[in-house]
Structure prediction request, 321 residues.
Amino acid sequence: MRPGLLLAVLAALCAPGCVSATDAPAADVGPDAAARAASQLAARRAADEADFLRQLDQTLATRQKEDPATLLTTLEHLLPAWESEQRRGREEPIERIITLRVVCNLDAVLAAFEQGARERQLVAAWALGFARVPPNALGIESPHARARVALVKGLQSRDDAMLRNVLLGLWKLHDAETPLRPLLDLMVQHHDPDVRSNAALAVGAVIDDATLPAALDSLLVALADKEPKVRLHVASAAQRHPAPAFTERLLGALPTEEVPLVRASMAAALGAARSKAAAPLLLTMIDSAREIESSTAHAALVAIFGQDLGVHGADWVGVVK
Prediction:
């Protein structure tokens, strides 16, 4: 196991729920094509989740546990495959495999995290992020709260690699009960840029509209972090939770941001905020030679003005003041 996870910008490369070329219907055209494709994708995912829950229920009923050493080795080997599939936006099948193993053997994974050798702890830290069971009618309880408690204790570690994986686990759990203050402190104060990045990712996953005010000041500080991945994850949080303070800061940050992926995430956040003040900035991006910038600026302008006037800056000059 390498010394901790250096989290790639996988969420930005392919947003959750995006349709890959292999998922899209081959010959579905017309004004309702996107809606039909989304409906078909949702139906497939619902069927896949139902199959997974039945398999999980059957495995739990047998009460057969894996050998802990074999289990941790298997999970370690699944990590590269998971990372690879997530970058392609098709991680759900392998995530269900990992979740089944973790949920059915949670005691062993917790023991490895709390008492195992360091290499086993590193594996268990990220694996605990897969301890959540979707809501279901089969009576299967989700044990994710136990994983959250263990991972929150792990935030006290002074081992940078361990912190990266613990934060990755907390991000994956998406548990709103996760205490914010330790995450915020790591996001703005830690010396390791990957720890700060993973902390920003975790903060974005656990905040909601009720807890955003308590996190906002720290998020605004992190938006100016020298590490691009931190800025990226904060901009993604701003996209999910638009707020006037975010918009004001993004309007000032976008013109000087040099990393295309971060610029795109900032543009998406301004689009989500429906900020007409951002339109002139987006107009300068829509004709960018970088597709990630031009396509995101176009989508943001559509979101702001509620109409699609075209993919070129000249198409929008009449409405952008």
Q: What stands out?
A: Residues 1-29 have pLDDT under 50 and may be disordered.
